[in-house]
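Reply to dn_fold:

You asked what the input looked like. This is it:
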Amino acid sequence: MPSSDPDLSESAPLDLNPDIDENIIAPFPKGTKGISKILYGTALWTVTSRVEIELPDGKRRVLFLKVIEGDDPGEWMMHGEFETMNALYQNEPNFAPEPIVWNNYKSEPHTWFFLCSFHNFGSAMVDSELFTTKLAALHKSSISPNGKFGFHVHTSVADEEWSDSWEECFVKMVTRLLGKELKQWGPDEELATLSSHLLEILIPRLLRPLTADGRMVRPCLVHGDLWYGNTGTDQANK
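and this is what came back:
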């Protein structure tokens, strides 16, 4: 998989393709038809849409589509989005949308997409007690497939590799983010000094005691971009 990241200074373009590509409806039963595709919401680097399809039995289904142009970062970004969302959904189905498919457009092979269930979240903040209860349940129920820290595919915050400790994994993630900063803006002496202190002094001082004297940190699923803009309450299931 490609290893570079999107240019943080660029925002998403207008709708890349107003039509519903064949590969978007490919996972559904033969005879499924695309009804509409409307720009919906905002996201960095990608175009997001509300898609409506009609199944062979006449029932309609509304879906959420995220699209990005270009193989790098498009391919690995949509793959990572699908795999991470699938991990969340498999552990806590009521805590994340249902991922359906990721692929490239049949009509435009260098355009990539991620498709999942659509939810009308509204604009209100989530119930903090209910949200944190579900988050805690995710942390408790999820299990690392090999007892290590990391993830099995390349994502925006981590490469497809595993670490034996949370400290090692966290250092790798921060190092990668600092590398993106360096690539984007060039060398900075002050940042280089602060980065060295962060990686060699601060992180070990904070995280290493968690595994001292027989203590342990159990690897579990951790949302890599958890902020209020990525949370919401489904208005149909309050």
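Residues 1-16 have pLDDT under 50 and may be disordered.
Hope that clears it up.
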